[in-house]
Amino acid sequence: MAKWFKKLIKLFVDRKTWVRQIFVAALASGIAWQVGDLLIKDGGLVAAIICALSIRISLYRSVREGFGQIVGTAIGAAVALACVTIFSFGIISVAMTVLLCSVVARALHLGEVASVNVPVTALIVIHPGLNENTAFSRLSSTLVGAGIAIVFSYFSHSKTPTARTVDQVTVLANKCAKLLGDMSEGVAGGLTQALAGKWLARARLLVEDIPGLRAQAIEARGHAKWFQTSDKAKAQAQGLYIRGIAIEHTAVQVRTMARTLFDYSISGGIEGRITRAVAQALSDLSYAVSSKAEQIRNDNGDNQSQSAILDARLSGVALADSIMEISGKVDQIQIIRGISLVSNITIITDSLDESSPALHNVLTPGEPATHRVLKVSPIEQGARIGAQISKSAKPLLSIRERVFNYLLRKK
Fold first, then answer.
1. Considering the domain 161-360, what is its CATH architecture?
2. pLDDT tens digits, 15-38
3. Quick one: which of 322, 312, 318, 321 has its CA closest to 270?
């Protein structure tokens, strides 16, 4: 019994972040219910629902979610009130409410979250006897719930967005380094299709971590921009954002290298004369990536990291020389695949020392439009509407000018 109890406790201890988040969410929802009932008659339930929907693992995200909830509730309440007024409460008013809310959300280019919130919150406020006072009461409850969610989201995580970004960047970098090290040992010990297949499967999982890493880096940068932080913190967040992109590039190249080694394994293996050079290059690259992760984690050790990156770069050059030496003696496919590995090594080392123009000169996409509260900014929407009005008004202006000229000729 004691052993089972210790095992149960360990399950929660190993998931401290998750446990903290659910306790904060539960406490926030309870307080939202109490505050909602105190401030607004029968407003506790709506406030608790909106709080539970809005609270996220960070203040930055909860502000965005809360805004989406408010926009959704305002639109949903207005549409629901109009439908109930016209059709009275029933199947038609419910169906029309969901239909019109979805159309309005689409027309306003609301993001995925807010688009769902519009019909959901409309259904929350709609019920027999809905009137202006009830709609206003539900909207006020939404403001209470979203506000409490924003306040409590500050306590949802024990670390700042920047610290969480550091964690994710270093974790992904160390995974890449571990896989590169295993690939080096495998190549040196004898490449097999089964082994290369396992490497490729692990490399694919690495790439699946990229969206989460990018979202976290964007959050850290946004938090530093919009909330009260020092110039040093803002610079650190921007630097982490660049390093996150560098590790993203690294993970993609590691997957490509794993695929190249798999292709080698199904076509006779690596030419024996370059096997040692490939293994050495992979080993040096593994150490370079792990050194970069250590530098990011501790914010020091730059000299050690740069030295390791230089060694990896030189190993890539040595591999290229070895490939050129046998270029006229082996199958052309062997040469192409070997040069591909050299290219991957060069891209990774350029990313690790942050010298690649691809990190600084190319605008990296932010969050997908479906994750934003507004897929299209209000300014852009206004510009589009203005252009459409101007285009539609041109024929009318032309007719007016013709009539004016005709009247002048008559005179």
1. Up-down Bundle (1.20)
2. 667 777 778 888 888 888 888 888
3. 322
